[in-house]
Design goal:
Layout: H1 10-18, H2 21-31, H3 37-60
Length: 82
């Protein structure tokens, strides 16, 4: 992500943090006893490990061939309707 503190003031940053949907959902899970702090920490640790593994795998993957630059960008044209 970019350095949003360069163009957002402190009030806006606080607003964004308060209304962040993931943080808000986390607070709701805790408030209504749908999950414990320990359960959420375990989930966060698993997700973090999965993201790290995906990142490591992506870095180890070969670079795409230059001629594939347009693959999956523009769909194949549909045949003309009759």
């Amino acid at each position: 992500s970019d350095r949003h503190e360069l163009y957002r003031d402190e009030n806006e940053l606080n607003y964004v943090k308060e209304y962040d949907p993931l943080a808000k959902y986390r607070r709701m899970l805790l408030r209504y006893n749908r999950a414990s702090e320990e359960e959420l920490k375990e989930i966060e640790d698993k997700v973090s490990a999965e993201v790290r593994a995906a990142h490591k795998s992506a870095l180890a993957s070969p670079h795409p061939a230059p001629e594939s630059i347009h693959d999956f960008v523009i769909p194949e044209p549909y045949p003309a309707s009759q």
